[in-house]
Amino acid sequence: MFEEAQYFAPVAAQEDGSVVVELAASHPGFADQVYRARRNAIAALALGYRLGTPIPAAEYTEQEHEVWAMVSRELAIKHAKYATAEYLDGVARLGLPAERIPQLEEVSGLLEPLTGFRYLPAAGLVPLRDFYGVLADGFFHSTQYIRHHSVPFYTPEPDVVHEVIGHANALASDRYAALYRLAGQAARRVEGEEALEFVSKVFWFTLEFGVMREQGELRAYGAGILSSYGEIEEFRGMDIRPLELAAMGTTHYDITKYQDVLFAAESLEHLEDVVGGFWATCDDDSIARLMASAV
User: Fold this and answer.
1) The pLDDT of residue 289
2) Burial 19-50 (b: 16+ CB within 10 A, else e)
3) Residue 227 a catalytic site member
């Protein structure tokens, strides 16, 4: 229901050096001053981070650890039913803690020996080219805050549940991690904004909201589906279309609701051939041809 590079609460640095996360009035934590103060402090950690240094630890309350434990437990049940085998293998390899929120430095320590990926803390909005580009180097921008405890199965913005349960488990797979890297290489290779948006839309409909046919049924591998308690129960009933690059790169989506159009790979090999092959070779000219063919 959201996109890393698009749907974050704005973050503003004040004249006195403090950091303020500007939550919308509709946000579940808007009226909770304790939660808002912690969000501000966590954003400040990310803004002060310097590449190559350990990621500063975020302080979480027992209530927030309980939210993580509850969501982790319920999602694990749904993953067994709906997630692809490759994703489930990643879950087993990574071994995330189920009873507490892991620190991003801890996630990096688990992930790097497996596929070379490390996490980078993000205070809020990360420009598209930066967010996707660093994937080529094995880095993934991630928030550190967790959703408000009043609605443990809902978040209006990507939180640590989405970033870690959704993405880190996928990044623990050698084959999925290779696709993330190829997406980053593509984002760096293209020059125009239209071409970059095309690359990002293909990412959206695959590594964020991708589905795949496996042993006669439709399963999910996209982090947006696999981190959403509600959406994971609904994706099989959506408009499922063939894995076509021109269609994915030009289809409009609404980040504020469940994705009603999804594109299905016939297998992991099919995903690697079509999408991996595209990201490995695409440039502005080839993307312009794809866009023209979709008209």
Assistant:
1) 97
2) bbbebeeebbbeebeebbebbbebbbbbeebe
3) yes
How many domains does the structure of the chain reveal? 1
**Annotated binding-site members:** 162, 167, 208
Q: Residues 86, 157, 163, 208: which is the catalytic one?
A: 208
Bridging pattern class, strands 211-214 and 139-142: unpaired
Residue that wins the pLDDT comparison between 199 and 153: 199
The number of beta carbons lying within 10 Å of the beta carbon of residue 197 is 17
Q: List the binding residues for Fe cation.
A: 162, 167, 208
Whether residue 112 lies in the annotated active site: no
Mean per-residue pLDDT of the chain: 94
Confidence check: pLDDT of 224 > 50: yes
Average pLDDT score over residue span 79-88: 98
Active-site residue (options: 79, 141, 148, 162): 162
Indicate which residue of 142, 173, 227, 228 is catalytic: 227
The boundaries of the domain holding residue 207 are: 3-294
What's the pTM?
Answer: 0.94
The domain spanning residue 71 has which CATH number?
Answer: 1.10.800.10
Share of the chain above pLDDT 90, in %: 87
Out of 148, 167, 173, 231, which one is annotated catalytic?
167
